[in-house]
Design goal:
Layout (H helix, E strand, L loop, with lengths): L9 E3 L15 E2 L24 E3 L38 E6 L10 H17 L5 E4 L2 E7 L12 E12 L2 E9 L23 H5 L6 H28 L3
Antiparallel strand pairs: 1-2, 1-3, 3-4, 4-8, 5-6, 6-7, 7-8
Helix pairs in contact: 1-3
Length: 245
């Protein structure tokens, strides 16, 4: 993952205690630097958090992580060796990248359920800005029907606006999601995003033009919806822990 030395980071910490069903209060700004990366992964990425928090670096330098099936040589840009499990994707300026680090066992979430929670948080965020996001049963992520916003687009054609790439180790989540707010669309043309040939990528800027919200507004909205959806999962898990066996 490319390093983001100037990226702002917002950290929110969901409670993982078995005695609590609540998330922590509003996101707080963290000023201490991230921990060093493991050997061989290069400089620390701004999207890499200490365990227990959600890091949302609103912007950063460009990079193309290669998933387990990805071959960085298939792109003319250099990819880093972050491998969430898919193919090559792109992270760079104009994207909102969220890497929640959560104990899915405590939240009693299967990986499938967690992926749907991330997607729903993005769909809820987009709805607040007048964009209708949806799921594609054939591909993970959040998609938008282009014809709703671009009359010249073919009816029913979906474009990806948010990518998901999650990995778990001992059921602690790593990686997360990226939402295209206002990145340079030319960067996506240098790769086959997530290995989905022929599937277009879109951005909030492309859909809304001058009405595109600021990165700060999108970041605040996404944090809020992640908090809300994780609070529901945490409350459900706490109720299950309290239930008689």
């Amino acid at each position: 993952m490319a390093a983001w030395p100037t990226a702002r980071r917002t950290t929110c910490r969901p409670s993982t205690s078995r005695r609590s069903s609540l998330l922590a209060g509003p996101p707080r700004r963290r000023t201490n630097p991230p921990p060093p990366s493991p050997p061989g992964l290069g400089p620390p990425a701004a999207g890499r958090a200490r365990p227990g928090g959600d890091d949302l670096p609103p912007q950063g330098g460009g990079g193309q992580p290669a998933g387990r099936r990805g071959d960085p040589r298939g792109s003319r840009r250099r990819g880093r060796a972050d491998r969430p499990g898919g193919d090559i994707t792109y992270h760079g300026p104009g994207q909102l990248v969220a890497y929640p680090i959560l104990d899915l066992n405590v939240l009693m979430l299967r990986l499938h359920d967690y992926m749907r929670l991330l997607e729903q948080s993005v769909i809820d965020t987009l709805a607040g800005f007048g964009v209708e996001g949806q799921r594609d049963p054939e591909a993970t992520g959040v998609w938008v029907e282009l014809a709703r916003y671009q009359p010249a687009a073919p009816e029913g054609r979906l474009a990806k606006i948010a990518a998901m790439g999650v990995r778990v180790r001992r059921w602690v989540s790593m990686h997360g999601l990226s939402l295209n707010v206002d990145p340079d669309p030319a960067h996506f043309r240098l790769i086959v995003p997530c290995g989905l040939a022929g599937r277009p990528v879109t951005t909030l800027r492309a859909l809304l033009g001058d009405d595109c919200p600021s990165m700060e507004r999108v970041s605040e909205a996404l944090v809020g919806h992640l908090h809300a959806n994780l609070a529901v999962a945490a409350a459900r898990a706490a109720a299950a822990h309290r239930a008689p066996t």
